[in-house]
Design goal:
154 residues; alpha+beta; Chemotaxis protein chec; 33% helix
Length: 154
C-alpha cells in the first residue's frame, strides 16, 4: 500500500492526540494485519469512499489509553469505560478522519466519509474489505496503546 495513503492517518492521529489530549505518541513498525481481531478494547470504524478508492479505517484503543484521553480532554477522571467514553471514540475517529481528509484533499484525493461505528469488547472483530491487505500501525503512548488499521483498494 502506498505510503501517501497511510501518512495522512498517521499525521492526523498524532495531531489529534497532541492538541486535544496533550499526549505525544510514537509510531511503531507498520505491518500487515493477520485475522480480524482488534488489538484494542474499543474501536472506531469508518468506511472511506472516493471515485477511485474504497476502503475503511479503524482506530482501536487500549482501555488505559482511552481513559487517559478522556480525562485529559474532558477534565474529569473515569474509573471504567461507559457510554460517554464510547461516544468519545466516535468523536476521535471523526477528528482523525477529518484531518486525514484535509490532507488527502491537498493531494487531490477526496474521500466521502460515513458516520463511524463504535465496536467494543475484548477481542472484537473488525471486518475490512474482503481479500484486501490491512496495514496495522501501532502507536505507543505513556499510558497505553492506540492502533490504526487502514484498508484501501484503488
Amino acid at each position: 500500500m502506498d505510503v501517501k495513503l497511510i501518512n495522512p492517518f498517521v499525521e492526523s492521529l498524532l495531531e489529534v492526540t497532541e492538541t486535544m489530549a496533550q499526549l505525544s505518541g510514537h509510531i511503531g513498525k507498520a505491518q500487515l494485519k493477520v485475522g480480524n481481531k482488534s488489538h484494542g478494547i474499543v474501536s472506531g470504524y469508518i468506511r472511506l469512499h472516493s471515485p477511485n478508492t474504497n476502503g475503511s479505517l479503524s482506530i482501536s484503543f487500549s482501555e488505559a489509553a482511552l481513559l487517559a484521553i478522556y480525562e485529559r480532554m474532558l477534565g474529569e477522571p473515569l474509573k471504567q469505560l461507559d457510554d460517554s467514553a464510547y461516544d468519545l471514540v466516535g468523536e476521535l475517529t471523526n477528528m482523525v478522519c477529518g484531518g486525514a481528509k484535509r490532507r488527502f484533499s491537498e493531494q487531490g484525493l477526496d474521500f466521502d466519509l460515513a458516520t463511524p461505528d463504535v465496536i467494543k469488547g475484548d477481542g472484537h472483530e473488525l471486518n475490512h474489505l474482503d481479500n484486501q491487505p490491512v496495514v496495522l500501525l501501532p502507536f505507543r503512548y505513556e499510558m497505553g496503546e492506540i492502533y490504526i488499521e487502514v484498508c484501501l483498494n484503488r
